[in-house]
Amino acid sequence: MKQLIALIAVLSKEEHQEFVAYLKRKNRRGDTKNVLLFKLILAGETNALDRKLYGTPSKNAFHALCKRLQDSLLDFISGKSFSKENSEELEILKLLLASRIFFEQKQYYIAFKSLLKAEKRAKRIAVYPILNEVYHTKIQYAHLNPSWSLTAIIQESEANHGLFQQEYQLNLAYATIKAELKTPEGKSLREIIEDTFATFHIELNDTLGYKALYQLMEIVSTAAKLQSNYHTIAPFMERLYGLIGKKGLLADKHRYYHIHILNLMAITHFRNKKFSESLQLTANMETEMMKNNREFYKRFHEKLTVLKALNRTYTGALDDALMLLEAYPQHSLDLQLLHMTCLFQGEHFNKAYALLRSFRHSDDWYTKKVGWQWVIKKNIIELLLLIELDKLDLVLLRAERFKRTFSKKLRQLGEQRVLTFVQLALRYYENPRLIRSEGFEKEVGDSFVWLGRDREDIFVMGFYAWLKAKMQGASLYAVTLDLVRSQSEQ
Hints:
Radius of gyration: 27 Å
Order of helices and strands: HHHHHHHHHHHHHHHHHHHHHHHHHH
Largest sheet: none
Number of strands: 0
């Protein structure tokens, strides 16, 4: 039952309806109970389901039904995932498979034509695993084509294998950095990145291909996200972006990766409070998305919306950001949290709390889905909203849960100041008058460690702004903008 509930939790509201339609098409009998079971679980009913379905206890029939429903969910989810895969890669695989069938049927002309077409497309988008299969097929049938040089094909295959190995090394580096950041041993973020690159013999130079440069940017950006430290990685990102700039028109051949790169750079500049640069990269990203009849527009629309909303929020256009978020057709968890954060900044506390209550899964579930940083941010906003709405019992309950759940890990990661902030927020709630005193202001200054004006993370500043707004008796959003502007102008 747990696995069944977990699978259903993966589906969106729109997919709930699609899945019911899928089951109805699949059912051959009119008395099948799978749709009813799905709807009962969706409604949160998990007790005595066999009686509700069959009228009497029927454990064996119920377990068999659960197994069939689980199999149907797996088929549906895998089918949806397959349909969302890169369509060009699928087309290349189809051409490769077709060529092999034609070779078996001794239709050599069409076989060679299909194989060469697959090779050309695979080279254009740098899918090295598929190219490996293409070259294996070319080597296998090279004796049938007198115009082919087996030696040349082997050389191409070995060169591609080198690129494939490079991609493999990058994946190992990505996994290693993520693992080290989860169990820090005193190394700085820069040391972790540099040591990992050295271990896997990764050098930042002109020989790196477009896709490899994108992968390196993603590795570095992920490391920054895990430690909320975009200041340290900025030189890495600028260097990689400079190498990409030297590739010139290759961006047209690798538009998918180019849009990703623009997104990563725009995020890096935003997190470092360089808003004009971030806005320019966001505009460049949208321009690329519009090309080729909006080929990649739908795929990157959410990322574009997030960038626009973030930049508007922190440059004084909060209402525009809210309109943008509210107009977006389907909110992911990241977009929902951003929407809630913007509502909180605008002091629309009841609306933000209503949105918060739509998060009905456990912290463990959200950690697996979107990461630990997302969960921390969501819990801090929840606590502040409960304080603003004066829900005493819930404030005490959530504060205790926060300390019990996150204290150990935050200390291990060197993020004691998050716990300090929560303690100060609770002190304010217990005695609101205290916060206007000189003693409290000095305590905040002494206990809350800042990383420096240029290094401080923009989202950390947003939370501190709440505390400072209380001390000054000022608008939360106005204080946030003052903090951001004072740091971005340094």
